[in-house]
Amino acid sequence: MDKWTQIEFFVQVAELGSLTKAAERLGMSSAAATRCLNALEERLAARLVERTTRRLSLTDAGREYHRRCAAMLSEMAEAEALINEATINPNGVLRVTASVSFSMIHIAPALPEFRERYPNVAVQIIAANRYPDFIEAGIDLAIRTREHEGDSRITVRKLAETQRVLAASPGYLAKHGAPETPDVLRQHQMLVYNLANDPHVLRFRRGAKVESVPITSVLDANEGQVIRAAALSGHGILIQPLYIVHEDIVAGRLVPVLTDWQLPKLTINMAYQSRRHQPAKIRVFIDFLFERFERLGLARKWK
To answer: Would you tell me which CATH number, out of the four given (2.40.50.100, 3.30.930.10, 3.40.190.10, 3.30.1330.60), belongs to the domain 92-162+266-301?
Structure first.
């Protein structure tokens, strides 16, 4: 028998004062119970139990061993209960990483509703436009605009797709005019997100026609909110995903241009560690985001 079985059986013997009762509780035969105790005493090279036909008592060594083993088994039971609680009931700190824009526009406003449902889950947002190694950083969930992870331990689920659009303020367009063809963008003041793939070349598609246009930026930045603020102030034409500028377009603060041409779409993914027993805090947040996006029709608005 393994050590843990021996220890568990001995603790039961000590607390019940009977080999027979301990064996019944653990579903062991009387012969197996005797072998178990003998094997433990032989392994420890110490007598733990004094047995007579009438009574059973612990030796001094047995009492000390029982005290330590009982405490150890209690700690193990508590640890297993805590892990089980974390797997079944949402609690603890949920660490989420996403871009600054996504965190500001789509995570932070959703937190009051999420916390009302799951008051025992605290959320920590790590806003970052570059993707950290979130396993090493202790992050539970990453929201990213890429389709694949190089690590097989990572599960990726698609949350939504979003178009990338070109847009400018009414003031800018009144002063500079709206571009009518992609090649005219060379003459415009372009606001560029410099962490995009090949940010200074725009690849357009209209039906079967594909066109690549090199552009020069008057401003480039590694944060979409900087680009958005510059466009709202009339500084130029931005290239941003709809999930960032949709409300500005609806409100008329920004006006889309070249709407008959399309840039490659972005896929918004949720990435998390692949594990058999996923902590409840991660599972419920993923389900919450899917539900919220569906209820608000966000994916439909961004197509």
So the answer is: 3.40.190.10
